[in-house]
Amino acid sequence: MMEDNEWEKISGLFERALELPAAERRAFLGEIARSEGEVISHEVEALLRADQNSDGFLNSSALNLAAQQLAVNCEQIRPNAQFGNYRILSRLGAGGMGEVYLALDEKLGRRVALKFLPQLFMRDETQLERFEREARAASALNHPNILTVYEIGNTGGRTYIAMEYVEGKTLRTRISEQNFTHEEILNIAEQIGEALNTAHRAGLIHRDIKPENIMLRPDGYVKLLDFGLAKPLNESAMVPTSNREHQGPKSGQQTRHGLILGTPGYMSPEQARGEALDGRSDLWSLGATIYEMLIGNALVAGDASGPAMVEMKLGDHQYLFRPILQNTLAWELGHRYQNARDFLAEVRKVKVALERSKQKKFSAETKNVIAAALFLLISVIGLMAWREPATLKPVSKISNQESVPASSYYWELSESEKSAFIRETAHNIAKMLGENPSALSPEHAKQIKKHVEAYMGKRNSLSTAPGNESMKAVYARASVYAPFIIEAFHAHRLPPILGLYIAMNETEYHPCTESPVGAKGLFSFMPQTAERYGLRLAPEDERCNPRKIADAAARYLEDLTKIYGRDADGLSLSMMAYNCGERCVYRALADLKAKNIEPGSFWVLVDYNDRLSIPLQQETRNYTPRFFAAAILGEYPERFGLEIHRLSTYTTQQ
Amino acid sequence: MSELAKPAPGELTQLLIAWSSGDAHALDQLAPLVYAELHRLAHRYMNREHAGHTLQTTALVHEAFLRLIGNPQESWQNRAHFYAIASQMMRRILVDYARANLRAKRGGDMTRIALEGFDLPVSEPALNPDVIALDAALEKMAEIDLRRSRVVELRFFGGLNVEETALVLQVSPDTVIRDWRVAKAWLFRYLNDGR
To answer: Mean of the per-residue pLDDT values for chain A?
Structure first.
């Protein structure tokens, strides 16, 4: 083993040799031999040789190499391969927990689907057991809407399940084709509801209801696949409303180490938390599936659920689905349907209502329409009530907008007009934050402009993926929780628009106000930050409680202003510290001070960006400028063609 | 107050944080996520229309890493730290995976059904390192040159590019490029000459 300093010497010489033209390297090695000795020169030479031969070495990642190897291994199942009575015909695809092939049962002359457990898992007893459990669980169920399992086999060291072959397409494929009729959605919901009713009563929960696991046959039959994650409901069958104590302990989980199985986005909150499950978890997942058929986009993993969310996303013509979604996607178990039968009853009721509304569709005076109108009216009043924090005083002046040339849309401006617009509006935002903000330079405006345009690009986005949602969706979330935010920030003498735009900035990436996956809440608190501000994480994650998280965020910012000050400049520094941590900003300022640069404003960090560490350089260009960008769009929506109320109007009394 | 005021999005982050703070079970939850990507990639390779297209392969792998290690758009807090932990995680899981595969091969109980018609973009054996041996070599390397061994961990296991690696190690991209070359030469020699 060579010594550390010896290696340092060798690697240094090797690097120098690399810089030389190949022809001069030999002479250089001779020089090394003379000055450092043969051993060192030999080492450098060996490295040079390795360097020449290693073209292509490590030029792929470990993941890629493993995948290629796996591809080779998987190829072992080929057409005409024989497994017991079954002859492989073709590959159908990969489902949860394994590869699926179409095969011919040569004894019975029928086509079957063979599902193979991936070889990787076959060595894992837990996985093998789970795979076999799937077979047993599903074969115990005899229902037209549940895929029939014929047998479990093992040939040539490979375990497989032989099951009914369904011709048709998955619901996933169907969703990508779009244009569902409401009848079709209800029909699918009903059949899966029936499958679940039978399974739940037999003591089985599916645990992974999602469009990929639902097959649609051309004759209209719907089949639920993949009881791969099912586990017997031994400890608690369908639990009555009153009994919610089972939330805490994880007893009875068959998953190892509290391993969470399921698919984010369709997982119920309790499943994501790794808690004991009952059939109501499947109903959540089914609700998420119905939501996706109806809206066209999947529920974002960690998205807000419950009334506010459903309200926001549901179009007027989709009101019939409102009870179904609200009673499946309810955060609280007690607020959901208590069993699949209740769900089915509702689905059938809606089917009847839909039928009736079609029959009477030309009669404007039908009860349904009145009911719908009444419902809408009530919703609107309800929303208005949300938006009127009647006891709050105005705490920040709305800036004078006359100063901004108010004629054209942002994108109609010339580049220099755009920059001027950004500077002026950003300065107005800064004034809304506090007294005497520092002047903004063109460079500062440039940083903000970049984010304004990024936001603008997503103005009409249809995506629900974090960071890509439409502005309206992000904005709507911040405004729904506005009353809590305003109250909390007001109580801590902070400008409420600070809270509103931070919430907007944060929910862009953490749209979860009630996240099933690692709840973070509107203000994206880490568990330790949450605990420091007295928020409990269990049994209910208080980061998801809008009142509590808003208060904690305000207190956190208040603490930061004790370091950085409460004026406009101090607040922009605090904001940055909110994102990257108290010390990261403090240290950066101290570094600048050591170089005789007077800190004070956040924008100083932008000005002297090249003197900061690389991560901090990134940071100064992102979080706080993005805040200003969010605020500019939020305060000047008309310039961006956004039909929304300015967020700051929420902070003033009517 | 915590340096990391909040996590980057995604459940992976949560698990990585748990793992890096000593929760060994978190790795059991992470492994299926990595395996899922592994399988996805493998399936894409089996799909013949993609075979051999290097460019496409690069894109596929990049896509896989993106899904695993996340969106570079996130704000930095965690980003450097997150990349570092994610790369360690990938290393652990992929080396474990290779070990499991090795055991299976030694078991020798599998029926091989050879069939023609599948051209897979498999690298040449000499340049296709045995991950287990590489892991051991890297451990050796860390004893004499921690930084360069980390460059390999981040790039080869973590799939990071030069800029991302530079961000994690807080060095310039040029340094990463030089370190990578030195490390590769050292490893290649170690693995082929056994020293």
So the answer is: 75
The band of A371, judged by pLDDT with boundaries at 50, 70 and 90, is low
pLDDT tens per residue across span B116-127 = 222 222 222 333
Residue A424: other Cβ atoms inside 10 A = 17
Residues of chain A neighbouring B87 (CB-CB closer than 8 A): none
Closest CA to A487 of A543, A542, A551, A545: A551
Q: CA-to-CA distance for A512 and A466, rounded, in angstroms?
A: 10
Round to whole Å and give the CA distance between A469 and A331: 22
ipTM of the complex: 0.79
Query: Which residues fall within 8 angstroms of residue A309, CB to CB, at 6 or more apart?
Result: A303, A329
Q: Do B121 and A15 touch (CB under 8 A)?
A: no
Task: Return the HEC string of A3-51.
Answer: CHHHHHHHHHHHHHHHHCCHHHHHHHHHHHHHHHCHHHHHHHHHHHHHH
The pair phi, psi for residue A225, each rounded to 5°, is -105, 170
What is the DSSP-derived secondary structure letter of residue A539? Answer: S
Q: Residues A320-349: pLDDT tens digits?
A: 888 898 889 888 888 889 999 999 999 999
- Asked if B149 contacts B183 with a C-beta cutoff of 8 angstroms, the reply is yes
Cα radius of gyration rounded to whole Å, chain B: 18
* A119 contact residues in B (CB cutoff 8 A): 104, 110
Q: For residue A317, how far is the Cα from the chain centroid?
A: 27
Contacts of A606 (CB under 8 A, 6+ apart): A443, A444, A447, A620, A621, A625
Question: Considering only CB atoms, which chain B residues are within 8 Å of A518?
Answer: 7, 11, 13-14
Contact across the interface for A615 and B79, Cβ inside 8 Å? yes
Contact A580/B120, CB-based, under 8 Å? no
Q: Which of residues 489-528 of A touch B (CB under 8 A)?
A: 506, 509-510, 517-518, 520, 523-526, 528
Strands (E), A106-193: 110-116, 149-155, 158-164, 169-170
| Range A247-277 burial, b when 16+ CB lie within 10 A, else e | eeeeeebebeeeebbbbbbbbbbbbbbbbbb
Q: Is A92 within 8 Å of chain B by CB?
A: no
**pLDDT tens digit sequence for A44-65:** 999 998 888 877 788 788 888 8
User: Which 88-117 residues of chain B touch chain A by CB within 8 A?
Assistant: 90-91, 94, 97-98, 100-101, 103-104, 109-113, 115
Q: Which residues pair with A99 in a beta bridge?
A: A94, A116
Q: How far is A337 from chain B, CA to nearest CA, in Å? A: 28
| Cβ under 8 Å to B: A residues 619-648 | 619, 622-623
- Verify whether the Cβ–Cβ distance A118 to B39 is below 8 Å: yes
Q: Which of A64, A75, A578 sits opposite B5 (nearest CB)?
A: A578
Residue range A566-603, pLDDT digits in tens: 888 888 888 888 877 666 777 777 777 777 777 667 88
With a cut of 50, say whether residue B75 has pLDDT above it: no
> Which of B28, B76, B152 has the CB atom closest to A256's CB atom?
B28
Q: Over the stretch A84-137, which tens digit does the pLDDT of each residue have?
A: 899 998 887 765 456 788 999 999 888 999 888 655 455 456 666 766 776 777
Q: Give the C-alpha separation, A293 to A287, whole Å.
A: 10
Which of A59, A62, A68 has the CB atom closest to B90's CB atom? A62
Q: What is d(CA A601, CA A574) in angstroms, rounded to the nearest whole number?
A: 10
